[in-house]
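Can't paste images in this forum, so I'm doing it all in text. The chain is below; anyone willing to post the predicted structure tokens underneath?
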Amino acid sequence: MTTVAELLVARAEDDHTGLRFEDESWTWRQVVAESEVRARMLSALRRQGPFHVGVLLENVPEYLFLLGGAALAGATVVGINPTRRGPELARDIGHTACQLIVTDSSQLPLLDGLDTGVRPDRVLLADGPGYPPRPADAPASAGADAPFELPGPDTLYLLLFTSGSTGAPKAVRVSQGRMASQASVMAGGSGFGPGDVMYCAMPMFHGNALNTCVVPAIAAGAVLVLRRRFSASGFLPDVRRYGVTYFNYVGRALGYVLATPPAPDDAENTLRFGFGTDGSPQDISSFKRRFACPIVEGYGSSEGAISMSRVPGTPRQAMGKPPPGTDVVIVDPSTGEECPPARFDARGMLGNASDAIGEIVSRDGVARFEGYYANAEADAERTREGWFWSGDLGYRDEDGFFYFAGRKADWLRVDGENFAAAPVERILARFPGVITAVVLPLPDPRTGDQVMAALEMADPAAFDPAAFAEFLEHQADLGTKWAPRFVRVTDHIPLTGSGKVDKRPLRRQHWKTTDPLWWRPPTPRGGAVAAYRLLTPDDVAVLEDEFDAHGRRALLEM
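Text version of the structure:
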């Protein structure tokens, strides 16, 4: 099995352009040379115990040089999420036992006052004087030409935090062998080569950027273009400036690009395709039409145990199929039994959601899971009964295509009917002007849940509740219990650091928001459906009294 270090060393005499950032560029030979400098720096600063190096940087060249240096030196890069703050940020750094932190002056204030367990003299400023440091007693040229003894494939290379959308982020262990193997498969399967220009604006502390862009670019000898952080308005100008042929994405990035003003020449670009996860079917189709750029959507767990991709014949709403020879099923977590195939009616509506939806489980995935760092309890939860339990809900049709139905926390029960949030979100995303649609359960005052939707709109002020109600009436695949009782209209849906929707703040806030919140008051059974109107303080008082009357007030505080 090859390693990331070996992929990098293979570029040591490659004089093709390897990296572009803003107005600067480096050949691959120069990238390898910079990586060797970082490897010697890290080796000189190494202490006893796990050699974990926290990297708190935006997508800047130094991040790539540190990834290369760590690969050569056998160190472990801990990707620190700069969207985390205060005690949560300190917890991430302390939990992963970082010996060293590399940051810069723009990110350093995030560490102010935090007890990270890293001494101040072990926090290096990449844009400060004297960086990268050399051993005090060594001449500048000492060891400059000495070859590295390259680490083996089992060497721990990365600790990548999960998105934390359902709890405290867990640090996934990634070996050099696993990363190199996945990147090589991605590069070979996509036909990447020196003529490709690969654009990375997704954060490099996340596996999506490293697995689908950064390390595949090294493997292929392609040009890697880094952008500090994602910008929807900067996307197409960057594509044209650098001649980008490929980009990776995660979360709602496609929707944000599509929300920028269209132009007649949008399709005049160099893009060959984009690859990512969590794009809506509507956004994928719209992106291809507008930019003449196909989108390849995949599904993969951060833990590396389960992956799926679209193959010819994949239904529009489906994620695709797992690789041949892997054993992925849908399991009822309460019984451990495999769920029956999904059945769809003539309108395309899932007819047996309560039976067909379960957890996505790999019965042969434990061997591909390298574990979480210092979290035996989470390891045991993921690998119970010898299977890998993803924590994601899904269903599978009779042809073996898998569909995503949200996280386990996205299960709703309305009037005795169980259903998942993701199918409802896909329908609401069709409403004109919606960038992101989020569906979550709001406790019902009496029993079960009510449906609450949060709609991120390109122009929230343009939301028309009557038009929205009419839209719902014409969605043939909208279940009878799926229409939202509450609709929050906003210009910003909270995201995790990796760009995925973070529903936790929305659940905590429920109707406690300054955003416009529309609702349909309950009507007598069999009566006409109420029109949407703005929720008032008097309405809230009545609702809270009803929760009190039925002993369910505590649910609002959970």
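The longest helix spans residues 28-45. The radius of gyration is 25 Å.
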